[in-house]
Structure formats: structure tokens, C-alpha cells
Amino acid sequence: MHSLGAEMSHKRSGLLSGLIAGLLAALVCAAGMGMVVLFQQSLPAAVITFWGGHPVLLGLSLVIAALVALAMGAVRPRSLVLLPFAALFAGGAVAAGQITGSSILYGAALRGPAPEPAPADLGDIDMTNFNTGLQDALALYRGPLAETWSAWLYVAVAAVAAFALLTLRVTRVRRAQRAQRAEEDAAEAEETKEPEYRAPFEPAQQPTPKSTAELFTPRNPVKD
Basic and acidic residues bias located where (predicted)? Predict the structure, then answer.
């Protein structure tokens, strides 16, 4: 098994570039997830209330997994070390987005209570609201599993989907590179193969020697 240092030093493994691409994609996806959570009250009521809103968040988890795997797979990686990182980035993006959006949403509600909660706006996005509602947002993952199963489900779906998608991509890249390497080795072996030596005036096929006895033996010997 290759160590992490060996993988990073190996040319064309795509490890370092894949990690950078995956991290950037995870940050963008976390911001998008946070915006959806923060402005969820602006969505149509039918979308929010349908099956408790689980289909929407599950769909977002799959989208995040696809974006992370696509970003990491765009560099044509062949390092298997990237697979757990893809799961970590995708699952972390879902969790970070939920916590960030919920923190600001809860903080804005606690700072300015109203008889009816108003939809959040861009003015609510600040560190004060984030710090105020952070403890309540962390309860999404710190409570009993019977209460927090949905939040963990979104994270698990994103992690497993990203792992599976990037596995397919890495497998295809490794298979293509093996086939290309085999073709190059075959071509190199064909070029280095020495041709059969032949003298400059040597015919391709040696003539069949004839018996010299027929040259001096008369066809019809003289009878006595």
C-alpha cells in the first residue's frame, strides 16, 4: 500500500489537485446549503411541508455529492486516497451548511422576537446572529439519534454518494491509463525488436541445388 507521501510525490496521481478542487467545491456547496436553510421560509410552502422537507434536503445532499465528485474527478485522478476525502468533503459541506444557516436563522429569531417569524434576509447574515444561535444549531447533531437521525441521514447520503461517484471516476481513469501504458509498451517493444540479418546480395530464398550427376550422364547410352 502506498503511503500518503508516496502518493503525493507520484506524478500524475492527481492527489494534490484533487484535494484542492474538492475542498473548494465543498466550501461553495456549504455556502449554498446554508443559504437554502437560512431562506427556507421563502420557498413555496408545498416544498417545505412535503414529507417534512426531507426530499428537498436529500436532493441537495445528492447535488452536493455530485458537485464534489465532479470537481475532484475533473483532474483525472487515479489516487485511491481521494475516495475517503470525497466522502469527508461532501458530508462536511452538508453539516457545515446546515449548522451555519441554522445558527444565523436561530440567532436572528432570538435577537428580534416577533409574534410571527418573518423570512430571513441578507441583513441577518452577521457574526452576532451566528454566535447567538450556534448552540441551538449544534443540537441538530448532539441530541439523541431518535431526534437527530434526519440531519445525520443527509450527511451520510452525501458522503456515500460522493465516495461512490468518485470511485467510478478513479476506476475508469486507472483502467484507461493501464490500457494506454500497455499500448505504449507494445509499441516500444515492436520498435526495439531487431530485424533478421541478411547480406546485401543474399536472395530471400536459397536456390535448390541440382545434382551434378545428370550433367555428365548421357540420356541414351551407346549400346555395344
Answer: 180-199
Which of 154, 155, 163, 160 is CA-nearest to residue 55? 154
Whether pLDDT at 210 is above 70:
no
What is the model's pTM? 0.71
Domain count, the chain: 1
pLDDT tens column, 123-137: 778 888 888 888 888
Range of the domain at 30: 13-186
CB proximity list for 215: less than 8 A, separation 6 or greater: none
Q: How far from 24 is each of 65, 95, 201, CA to CA, in Å?
A: 13, 16, 70
Residue 5: inside a domain, yes or no? no
In a domain, 51, yes or no: yes
What is the DSSP-derived secondary structure letter of residue 105? Answer: H
Amino acid at 8: M
